[in-house]
């Protein structure tokens, strides 16, 4: 057994506890059984005893000893270093080994005590909205600084310092190019691939999507290389839009030209998968406890094994999970969760979208993945938005023929989608995740009435954006934007889809 002695010279109590806590975590997590002693003068013994109890350190410390005892062991005195205490960044903890040592079922946030926690972890997300956008209420009137933003973008007012609007981008490969009708299928399949979809019911061929290039980049660094979410159940087989396979219309993410990445659409399933709670579900039903209750029961040690600076972060994280779980349980109680698949049209979309956005936020917060796509609904989706008083189908409204009432209804839907997205951005910002995350929000069609694939709506959030509105030259490929984003993630790609090079505004 090793013996580690912390000398009294550390600091007068109540001092910073990270030194002792950090070393104890390190020793325990890696199976190095050690006897931890605190050495102090007799006159300070009671003071130090109260301090260790207050900070939770007494669970680590076997005894307080006096210098005259001449106990042999590794003596640590902070007088030997410049700072008044040993900083925990000198002894980072391996995240996987630490979690494994506690036997946790639940994913943990990226706490400061974990090795690499302070590194600039880069993330990517793409959010897609169907059927185009009412561009009159989307496009800012001025270029340069985002000052007077239009109505649809108004929920982003508090996030303008992280927002870029890019006008004029084109997806040429989403056009017919001799293949006839099928703009909705092509809009989805081309959005992140930049390639022309092969028009066939079963012989699918698209292209590898930008998110999957990033997934390959971060392969093995997180539990999931990438995650794909959708607002409704995906259809993979069969014929959908004008002879195109349903795979095109219901998927944003493509592992290869012939392999779409299936999306999860039920928040309950997403929750269970993200947080390893499948095995706890039965116990939960039998004992009528929260999953979080079981997790807390099996990880009582955790609170005493992390620095004080991480405790608040962990508490907030647990609260967030509890809120998501409570909402899912409430929906179970009213038998709504089973209807996600079949009755999406009559769902409270706001609640469902918030849940999915919350789960995206938690997935990033826990570093469960660094790459996520969210197809809010497949292109051509014709469900109503009864939450906001829109009873006519979305696709039908998109063929507005410049009817003012239909355009107004479309603007309400667009505002609804941006408002929910803004709430997600706010949570990312509060957890300091936004700076190193690139989020694309947009559509593969601009004016749903014309089914055009130029002048596409594109909002870029996060990174080093400075609150700007840019206009690019006519027919500028959207794939140029993807090349620029790949470069930001240190992927040296000079060509992607129909790209012509980098987009200098990013």
Describe this structure in words.
An eight-stranded mixed sheet has the order 6-14-7-13-12-5-11-8, with helices on both faces. Helix 1 links the parallel strand 1 and strand 2 (34-39). It has 14 helices and 14 strands. 32% of the residues lie in helices and 13% in strands. The model is unreliable at 78-93, 97-105 and 333-346 (pLDDT under 50). The longest helix is centred in the last third of the chain and has 27 residues, at 404-430. With 506 residues, the protein is an alpha/beta fold.
Show the helix and strand layout.
Elements: E1 2-6, H1 18-29, E2 34-39, H2 45-55, E3 63-65, E4 74-76, H3 95-102, E5 123-128, E6 144-145, E7 163-170, H4 183-191, H5 210-217, E8 227-230, H6 246-249, E9 254-256, E10 259-260, H7 267-274, H8 278-287, H9 291-298, H10 308-333, H11 349-365, E11 371-375, H12 394-398, H13 404-430, E12 437-442, E13 458-462, E14 468-477, H14 479-488
Parallel strand pairs: 1-2, 1-4, 2-3, 5-11, 5-12, 7-14, 8-11
Antiparallel strand pairs: 6-14, 7-13, 9-10, 12-13
Helix pairs in contact: 7-11, 10-11, 11-13
């Amino acid at each position: 057994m090793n013996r580690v002695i912390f000398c009294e010279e550390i600091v007068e109590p109540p001092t910073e506890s990270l030194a002792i806590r950090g070393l104890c975590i390190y020793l325990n997590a890696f199976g190095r059984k050690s006897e931890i002693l605190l050495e102090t003068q007799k006159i300070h013994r009671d003071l130090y005893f109260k301090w260790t109890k207050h900070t939770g350190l007494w669970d680590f410390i076997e005894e307080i000893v006096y210098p005259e005892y001449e106990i042999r062991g590794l003596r640590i005195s902070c007088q030997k270093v410049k700072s008044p205490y040993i900083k925990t960044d000198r002894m980072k903890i391996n995240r996987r080994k630490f979690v494994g040592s506690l036997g946790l079922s639940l994913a943990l946030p990226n706490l400061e005590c974990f090795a690499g926690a302070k590194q600039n972890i880069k993330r990517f997300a793409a959010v897609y909205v169907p059927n185009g956008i009412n561009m009159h209420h989307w496009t800012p009137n001025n270029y340069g600084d985002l000052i007077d933003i239009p109505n649809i973008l108004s929920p982003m007012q508090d996030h303008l310092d992280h927002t870029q609007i890019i006008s004029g981008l084109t997806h040429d490969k989403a056009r017919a190019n001799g293949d006839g009708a099928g703009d909705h299928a092509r809009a989805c399949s081309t959005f992140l691939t930049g390639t022309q979809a092969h028009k066939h019911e079963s012989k699918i061929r698209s292209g590898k999507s930008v998110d999957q290039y990033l997934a390959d980049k971060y392969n093995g660094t997180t539990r999931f290389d990438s995650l794909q979410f959708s607002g409704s159940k995906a259809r993979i087989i069969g014929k959908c839009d004008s002879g195109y396979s349903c795979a095109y219309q219901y998927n944003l993410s493509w592992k290869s030209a012939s392999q779409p990445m299936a999306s999860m659409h039920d928040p309950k399933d997403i929750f269970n998968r993200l947080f390893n709670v499948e095995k706890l579900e039965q116990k939960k039903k039998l004992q009528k406890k929260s999953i979080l209750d079981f997790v807390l029961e099996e990880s009582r040690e955790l609170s005493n094994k992390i620095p004080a600076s991480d405790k608040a972060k962990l508490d907030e994280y647990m609260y967030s999970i509890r809120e998501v779980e409570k909402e899912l349980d409430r929906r179970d109680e009213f038998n709504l969760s089973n209807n996600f698949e079949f009755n999406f049209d009559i769902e409270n979309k706001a609640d469902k979208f918030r849940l999915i956005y919350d789960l995206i936020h938690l997935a990033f917060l826990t570093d469960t993945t660094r790459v996520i796509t969210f197809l809010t609904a497949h292109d051509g989706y014709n469900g109503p938005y009864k939450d906001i008083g829109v009873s006519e189908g979305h696709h039908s409204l998109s063929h507005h023929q410049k009817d003012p009432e239909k355009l107004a209804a479309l603007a309400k839907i667009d505002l609804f989608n941006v408002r929910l997205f803004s709430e997600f951005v706010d949570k990312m910002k509060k957890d300091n995740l936004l700076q190193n995350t690139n989020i694309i929000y947009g559509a593969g069609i601009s004016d749903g009435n014309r089914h055009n694939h130029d002048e596409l709506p594109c909002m870029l959030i996060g990174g080093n954006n400075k609150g700007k509105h840019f206009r690019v030259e006519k027919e500028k490929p959207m794939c140029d934007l993807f090349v620029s984003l790949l470069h930001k993630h240190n992927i040296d790609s000079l060509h992607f889809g129909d790209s012509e090079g980098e987009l200098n505004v990013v």
